[in-house]
Amino acid sequence: MQVRFWGTRGSIAAPGPSTMRYGGNTACVEVRLDDGSLVIFDAGTGIRSLGQALLAQPGPVRAYLFLSHAHWDHIQGIPFFGPAYVPGTELTILGPEHNALTLEKIVTGQMRSPYFPIPMHAMAAKIDFVKLADGSQLELPGGVTVEAGLVNHPGYTLGYRLST
């Protein structure tokens, strides 16, 4: 398993020379499983750079995107994730819902006018949404299990544990 941090900031992106060592983008972590499967945790501004790197590689992008919660700094990069606009990309977005808002409504809502000029349906990728809650477990390829659990953070926020 390989892990790369594409963004580690909270609330507001602060890229630049003073943040190069620890990253200036908001939350986004790439995990490559031993079988090559791609798992992404959160879609802050760091997911834009991850998307550019993925587009530079041959073949279609297939990824699991786990969202911890719907705060802006954890979802604001989704509209800028280049592979989502490419036919053949398969993206499974997993995470908690918020009261009456489904996960799909949370994600697509930020891409509606007047907030963003390009609607979610303009993305050519095949995108599936999976609701997770405290105690959810999911088996990924290669014998990896993801467990979701509540963490101490404002709102309904999930942390994830990978085990193999």
Give an overview of the whole structure.
- The protein has 164 residues and is an alpha/beta fold.
- 13% of the residues lie in helices and 30% in strands.
- It is built from 3 helices and 9 strands.
- The chain has helices at residues 46-55, 72-75, 103-109; strands spanning 2-7, 28-32, 38-41, 62-66, 90-95, 126-131, 137-140, 144-150, 158-163.
- Strands 1-2-3-4-5-6 form a 6-stranded mixed β-sheet.
- The longest helix is centred in the N-terminal third of the chain and has 10 residues, at 46-55.
- It is globular and about 40 Å long.
- It starts with a strand and ends with a strand.
- The mean pLDDT is 94.
Secondary-structure-derived class: alpha/beta
Q: Into which percent range does the helicity of residues fall?
A: 10-25%
Low-confidence stretches: none
* Computed Rg: 15 Å
Spatial strand order of the main sheet: 1-2-3-4-5-6
Summary keywords:
30% strand, alpha/beta, globular, 3 helices, 164 residues, three-stranded antiparallel beta sheet, single chain, six-stranded mixed beta sheet
Short description:
This protein has 164 residues and is an alpha/beta fold.
Sequence-ordered SSE layout with sheet pairings:
Elements: E1 2-7, E2 28-32, E3 38-41, H1 46-55, E4 62-66, H2 72-75, E5 90-95, H3 103-109, E6 126-131, E7 137-140, E8 144-150, E9 158-163
Parallel strand pairs: 3-4, 4-5, 5-6
Antiparallel strand pairs: 1-2, 2-3, 7-8, 8-9
